[in-house]
Write the structure tokens for this entry.
Amino acid sequence: MYGYRGKILRINLDDKSIKKEDLNMEWAKAYLGGRGLATKYFYEEVDPMVDALSKENKLIIATGPLSGTPTPTGGRYMVITKSPLTDTIASSNSGGRWGAELKFAGYDMIILEGKSDTPVYIDIQDDQVEIKNADHLWGQVVSKTTELLNKEVGEKSKILTIGPAGEKLSRIASVMNDVDRAAGRSGVGAVMGSKNVKAISVRGTTKPEVHDKEALKEVVSTMNKQIKDNGVTGEGLPTYGTAVLVNIINELGAFPTNNFQTGVFDKAEEISGETLAEKYLVKRTGCYGCPIACGRHCKVDDLEAGGPEYETIWGFGADCGVSDLGNIIKANYWCNEMGLDTISASTTIAAGMELYQRGLIKDDELDGTPLEFGNSDAIIEWTKKMGLREGLGDKLAEGSYRLGESYGAADVSMAVKKQELPAYDPRGIQGQGLAYATSNRGGCHVRAYLISPEVLGLPEKLDRFELDGKPQWVKTFQDLTASIDSLGLCLFTSFAMGAGDYAAMYNPVAGTDHTADSILETGDRIWNIERLFNMKAGLKKEDDTLPKRLLKEALPEGGSKDRLALLDQMLPEYYQLRGWDESGVPTESKLKELGV
């Protein structure tokens, strides 16, 4: 068996049983692995109407067939479950080294079901798997949990864990690994917490076999060269990290500021990737098998830690009106320690700041830390309180939609399907707006990163205001991304690679004969099964939309002044290209074509 290890670890937390099952290779052929294959298992095993925080929900952690192989960035894993934030499918991605280690231990996937009656952690040492007491870990922050577990199970084990936010069932809690890497979005950490699972430690000592080592060696050499020669992956990301985009997006007038009230932040330079590199960067870091090394390890005052990324800098920075990069680094640190999604955490604070601005949140709710735009102390203090559900932090931990709704002002939530939007205003980047609205996991940029063609000009330059052709671009990017997530690779490789390149890497690993077209068709199949789950969970056409502000209030200044998101002009064509009916429901003929 090439690429795959052929085993699933199924752990029932009700009776503490541990079973090792054969991987369904027919499904693996149709859905690759990672996101696609785990979604297929989840779709077959879980009622879409299940309460996300009930024990009937399951949590699946899956690697891809290229995870743990020599392919560039082959260290990713996915977390699949029903989201407590959106009530749709959740598929959250993380890098670091934990995913590759699970593959080395001999497993393609872990399925957690039921609920433990007490806190536990799972220790995997190759074929030895144990469920152990975690009372002493419960309540600990991520770095402390990691430290304690490495002392117990060995320094070579890789640690995946939740923080206090996951334990307290915050709907924006993440699953963390390797201290500062996150499967961050959609509240997957709350599902793990609802099962009383604090952590999973893993140590593996054998690598997966590949079909043709020489052919793989040759294609890996070619792909690494393409990555190195590409301006984004070979220069921009290694030099300045993802925050290289701060000044670029701000100059377009599409850098959401003060909770999307405008698209220009007049102090963007102070929080840019260039400033981060000049004043705070200690070293570059990379995930397993990564030739890009876009990660940042920074120091401010006596704190030295991983991050922050572009989205985090924007969220705690411009979206909250804050230009103190040192405090943004600290807020990022506390998100990692608490196990919070930095995008949802920061933008929920920004929504709270607008509620305060409107007079809906009163001073007596704020424990002496005003939620004012520009208050750099607030982003640290409210991140901590959110993680611990203290005071108003209890409402913030529910995410921006439920926060706004509790004050009769859900319109302050800049979210799609209740998941907070990231750092690109769709009024200034039209294709990205369609990608947000149709994302199967709610507001998200990494389900279809239209910033690549609309801003960076990769693989070709598109007019960011033009609508013609954008639905096809969105569909293609969504399908390609679904396959990249399923193979176990990082999305950033797509700046330098196309669908044919992914087929060229997969084939010598697994002994298959994929082409660019079949890679995209597989992504289409994955996208449709996610859509089916969501429709059965209650999703409707009306949910494929954007916040009212973005559709009705034009940007007031900058390079996108007077622009609105023109979603309604693109959505019907998108549905048609997908093979869905006018209500966004996959047709029988489309499902038959894909074998779903």
